[in-house]
């Protein structure tokens, strides 16, 4: 049996995240199972590109730094990386995330022993700003670290699996794919996803659905033990960001549903909205009515956050569905992939 080769790719766009970028790359470089390739793709920022090539390569000689040669945004940067890596597996780590343990990469690669597995993603826990704790906009139940709205800040949320199992799609901050997926399915949709600080998304959802359609019997695996810590910036702790991010999610889901159909685009979301969120509201209301020890007074911030977040997402979805823009007409990016590098004996 042969082992798979793996590249870790970090995409970055701003010098404001320099410390996060440095930590992300360092966490990938110190893995027990070292990556075969380490890449940083800089999204249309000459100053960041020059500094990374000068300072980060001095620390990590194996690091290759590339400018985004495609459409501005995260999807274009990822597609640029895909046209340069030569490994079996491509791992994407966000520029503000860092592996929580030195066996993160090994755990992420374990499921690929099954040839039917085409993609594997891990979990993400929030790393709050220094001196800050969990905000009222992201409620959480007692005895759990996952909040129902933690997806708003790019983290694993209550309602996702707690053990390794198949899922529809992966979270972008901590995910991997067989490189051959992009030969069959094409790249990330460059008309979807985040551009700078604009909180759009769902390019991973659309790609995962498209990828499974190209390979019958394939599976996508969520591996919660492959964990990263995702830095949450101060601006994401506000009510304004909650509503803005939820509204953008609705717009993004509408675009995906026009491309792949509502059944697949909303299959996970229907259960989440009909079961997970109502349970959260009831819990938060009960907590306000009968506060536990140490409670400083009744409030309904948590319930309000869930209700307002769902409302903003719904409004965004309705607005997106009514839009005259036809996302389904957007072309799937065709990538020019390198020949695969030979695998080494296990």
Description:
With about 350 residues, this protein is an alpha/beta fold. The protein has one domain: Alpha-Beta Complex (Spore Coat Polysaccharide Biosynthesis Protein SpsA, Chain A), CATH 3.90.550.10. Helices cover about 40% and strands about 15% of the residues. Strands 1, 2, 3, 4, 5, 6, 7, 8 and 9 form a nine-stranded mixed sheet that branches.
How would you sum up this structure in a few lines?
The chain has one domain (6-323): Spore Coat Polysaccharide Biosynthesis Protein SpsA, Chain A (Alpha-Beta Complex), CATH 3.90.550.10.
SSE arrangement:
Layout: E1 6-12, H1 18-29, E2 37-42, H2 46-59, E3 63-67, H3 74-82, E4 89-94, E5 97-99, H4 104-109, E6 117-127, E7 165-166, E8 174-178, H5 180-185, H6 203-214, E9 219-231, H7 239-260, H8 262-265, H9 267-289, H10 301-322
Parallel strand pairs: 1-2, 1-4, 2-3, 6-9
Antiparallel strand pairs: 4-8, 5-9, 6-8, 7-9
Helix pairs in contact: 6-7, 7-10, 9-10
Domain Glycosyltransferase 2-like: 8-182
GO molecular function: transferase activity
Organism: Friedmanniella luteola
Shape label: globular
Structural class: alpha/beta
Q: Are there runs of 5+ residues with pLDDT below 50, and where?
A: 341-346
CATH H-tier superfamily: Spore Coat Polysaccharide Biosynthesis Protein SpsA, Chain A
Beta-strand fraction estimate: 15-25%
Helix content: 25-40%
Keywords:
346 residues; 10 helices; 9-stranded mixed sheet; single chain; disordered C terminus
